[in-house]
Amino acid sequence: MKWAALLLALLAPLALAGGTPPRQYQDPTLSRDRIAFAYAGMIWTVPRAGGAAQRLVQAQGRCSHPAFSPDGAWLAFTSVVDGNADVYVVPAAGGEPRRLTYHPGPDLVAGWTPDSRKVLFHSLRATPRDLERLFTIPVTGGHPEALPLPSGSEGSYQADGSHLAYVPHSQWQPAWKRYRGGQTTPIWIADLADSSITRVPRTNSNDRNPMWIGGKVYFLSDREGAVTLFAYDPQAGTVARVLDNPGGFDIVSASAGPGAIVYHQFGALKLLDLATGQARTVPVEISADLPETRPRLARIEPGQILHAFPSPSGKRVLVEARGEILSVPAEKGDVRNLTSSPGVADRDPAWSPDGKWVAWFSDEGGEYALRLRAPDGLGPVRTVKLGQPASFFYGPRWSPDSRKLAYTDKRMNLWVLDLEKTEPVKVDADLFDAPGCHLDPAWSPDSRWLAYTRQLPNHLHAIFVYGLEDRKPVQITDGRSDAFSPRFDRNGKHLHFLAGTGTGLGAGWLDMTSMGRAITSSAYVAVLRKDLPSPLAPESDEEGAAKEEKPEAKDKKAAGPEPVRIDFDGLDQRILALPVPRANYVALETGAEGVVFLLEAKVALADEDYVEAERGFPVSVHRFDFKTRKAEPFLPAVDAPETTNGGTLTFIPTADGSKVLYASQSKWFLVGADKAPKPGEGALRTDLQVFVDPPREWRQMFDEVWRIERDFLYDPAFHGVDLARAKALYEPFLEGLGSREELNGLFREMTGHLCLGHTFVNGGALPRQDRAPVGLLGADYEVDGNRYRFKRILQGENWNPRLQSPLTQPGVNVREGEYLLAVNGRDVTAAQEVHQAFLGAAGRQTVLTVGPKADGTGARQVTVVPVDSEGALRLRTWMEDNRRLVDRLTGGRVAYVFIPDTFAGGFANFNRYYFSQVDKQAAILDERFNHGGSIADFIVDQLKKTPAMVNVSREGRDVVEPAQALFGPKVMLINQMSGSGGDALPWLFRRAGVGPLVGTRTWGGLVGIGGYPSLLDGGSVTAPRWGLFGVGTGWDVENIGVAPDVEVEMDPALVRQGREPQLERAVKLVLEMLEKQPPQTFPHPPIPAHADTLPKP
Question: Looking at its record, which EC class is this enzyme (predicted)?
Fold first, then answer.
């Protein structure tokens, strides 16, 4: 935590020649006379001396990773075209780029072979998880050839091509300053003849960007503080610093060329003369139109509508999109922009019940405040400041009299604001910062009471009612049920809510123990006054005179709602269950008088259900009517509401109860509330546009990122970082931005100073592209002559929709060793990359010509449906290879269980593969590449079970209790790509004393993220809001990782021989443990024989 404070104290702004703003000259590369770099999504060149930059490549897509060939004739680069990142080459003097790779995974240029005949690139195309491999592909095109190394993400050849200096793995957060967890990057030097390696000396530093120059390997490292340039002498075995960088910005990337190294020191382009050892800034002038900076009209896609709210009678709908509040007509009229504020975040609109006002939160002025305006958009905007400290505010809820608003903030407070007094009053505060907890206020019809949900110390929720007159909250549910979603009915006589008594372990939202539990709830109604009858009293049809409404009753309706009285004494005995089945209800809303809507989500019980649940089940809606006392289906599929931080409602009745607004598959519909609508009925128009000014948006998002870090980070001291100074330090970089992706790069660099895992930056309004998905067959290829041959066909589970292998479908029967001769009648040869033939084929019927001979003899045609990703197939193949190896090495005595994460996938895999092997004598738990999710208490609880009892019977085998348990020795495999929940699992495994850990140190990112405001253009940034320390051990994982008991690297030489060093060592260890702890047996003790108790004759 001290590193960040130290770094920011030393940083000083770069000296910028001629007032030029600092720019991100990404991945510079050097030829004999020119420098090329990526900027604004294009490739530019400039003379070594500097000057006016010229565009060399302005392709259809975003360009990056330029690399001059050693002979200076070519420039290779990566470009995102058709939604996919591939390798291209272009003549260095200019010309038409040529695409070399077509695989649907990203292919990123890393360099060249010394003879300039092949491009070196790294890709995930042939790996089961997130360890890339290095490939070469001829500059003329053809089949990419994998280097004989199990992994690699950067590389540089020795001049004779015999050795490669490379980085064996990538990082999830390359900008994490002074990172010292398991993903610190070494540089290895591989002898390509046998894949043996020499390690560049280091002490857990981040070394990267190797450049082989003469007899030395130059590289970037943070071993002495800020990232700078070092050199390794293989003959002497020593490392020396080449450039001083005391307290400067990190050097982000570098590349060697004739006599020099060009490098990007964040915000500046520099050149190091190797002969003199002198470095200088290269002045760069860029005067060109940058497409991504142009102000323009932008279309609003359905998924960009973050909040919506109907007018009182449903004639219009307010939507929040791209930071604007739009009023959209249900049928007639035009779309009205009520804010017209490019570069301002206007959020969470709500229409007053009297129809006179629209309220929303806006950051215009630097911090969020409440704004109000007439719905025609013509009157002035009224601003109401919401006090200090500043915060994010959520979910404005109007009182029925349109005079007050209830809302919540990030600090878990519930507030009421009287618009005449303009002084917010705090109602209550929640107890735990847990997902799904948002207080959820609801007004009584007379605007004098506020019902809401709040957590209790037992982690369950209770319903509270707050009186605005006495300002006292009263808990009305007993706290032994999980109660939520309170709503008053329209006459103020009843309060409806949901509650369940079976939540139990399901309340532990961070624990895997909460998964797979059938948590259901019921719908209830509380009768608020003692003198009111039950709304569910027995009914009997009887004749009688028609009742006529009295004149005074009509007068009361005109005068407004009757004052609501709540008799709290005995209220618990006036709570009744509605006659509806228990279900997994997630929300309740009230409509017209006597109508209640219930939103039900699917209960995820089976493993495959839980995998689906990760993607978000839609919810169904039921309409309960007190007149019929029945619930009828209303809507089959509504988007699941988001409940964190004020929530995103997806089903909203109008103020008069006549209509409901709902979202389905991110599209919005406004329909009548009296009966189930027809499919597609009431769809809102989708031709929405707003004016955007990207530089103004980028400045707003820059401020927003710092607000998010300020308000959400779990450490109020920000790991020692002075946020104000950090913000001021990086603000000048805004002027030099040329693209939205560069803004993301700026966010990553500046948040990296928090020295903290899970500070992720993603998305945003990147240039749109129509995708042409490349189809995959689930196969590896090799070249024989000029033809492609199937080297390996991946076996899936064709009964499982997520694991279907195209070539193994019934009737296809393509075999390994056969040739791929044509695709849809077009000849396929090794002169092209094989995936070029499958451009646009994913998910479509495709005719293959295959056969046993390269010349086509005996060929046949088969129809397949290629998939768009082989990831699941390759992962299953890897798992099965490992399981078979363990079976072979142990004679079938040891179970192998892979745990891919600690959420849906890990829950499913563990349940399927562990419990099906409890008949084994021991187990190897493989959590390498575990991407986390939750805290894996469920898994460790199962692993640490010990025998307690034996169940005997006359027939059959004895059953040891607990029955579904494996009591023998256990070993866990870990590696640097295990993180977050994948850090916690081995930590818990060791703490519980289950067994030893084998492999390499884990990532070291044990904090939690979730529930942040979306950035203005749909991008996202995280600020870890949950930090975890060990009881009795402290902060012993974050930025450290979990170290193995037995360290084993994936030695490239052994892997080349077909070995699996980590798994083999785990097998050896577990067999040694079995020798010392053989399987237990439980001989029967004598069954008690009692004296004869029969009566004597």
Answer: hydrolase
